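User: Structure please.
Assistant: Input sequence and predicted structure:
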Amino acid sequence: MKVKLWSLAGALALALVPCIGIAQTDVYHQQWTKDLKGKTIAYVPVASGLALTDIWGQTMADYAEHAGMKFTTHDPGFDTQREVQILTSLIAQHPDVIIAHNPDVQSLANVLKQAVQAGIYVIQINMGSKYPSAAFVGVDPVELGTKMATAVVNACGGPNARSHKIALMNGVVTSAYSLGIMQGAKAVFDQHKDINIVSDQAANWTSKVAHDKAATVLQANPDLCAYMGWWSGQDQGIAQAVEQAGLQDKVKVFTTGGGEPPACDYIREGKFYETFSYQAEKQAIQMITLAEFLLQSGIKPGHVHTTIYTPIVSYTKENITPTACTVVRKTKS
């Protein structure tokens, strides 16, 4: 009789397993649908039409669409005042999440604070402001500067180096990204007194400006060992100046970026010596995943501050892979 009872109990337990599993799955689905479907995410990069910002945009748009959310992109075209105006307008429209790309540490701080006070989650990406919103997702610029400067020292600090002369090409000197890279790089260079920085200029993220300034530096320093730039889109101008001066196999160009296709092309062609990628597509997945978490968390805007730093991968001609860079599609608007 006991055997029969145990058998009956076992059969009932097994019969209930699918029901429990279905109920649990239904709970997940209900939360996903209730908290995400119909929500709006507004993405405001410093400019659209750049490989980096379009990789972020296209990836986040794909994930937002999958979750049933509306994803909009707003392009200030490198105009800081226009970006402030866009964000001010968005506060009135009240999207659920704003994902903002700061041109510098100060310009957007007040309007981002106003967005949070209005009950909007604000995620800052890759270049932060002095105002700590719900989250920052991006590369750690100090780590990036440290890694890049160490590579430059390894190439130009030894007895077999072409020379100990190097040049730096900053982006926008007041951006948190630029300040962090310089902080990390300076700490390394200060430990290697043989390294001679013959030029430290800024190109404002513009390839043409970088080209013209680099051409002048190369003319004055034809024995330059290396150029270290702050962003591959800008630093293509440096590589072009090096090539035009007939120094492509002599002056090493070190750069960084999010894995944009031109950077990989320049590595394969020997125009860039080494690039340090913060993997924009993976960054975008972190950005949109964090947005989904905030929307489901029940935490009110202004009551959470999170920092997520993305890994850095170094590529040279020897280890570049077919998947090192992300194919860019048109950003959804």
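Residues 105 and 130 are 5 Å apart (CA to CA).
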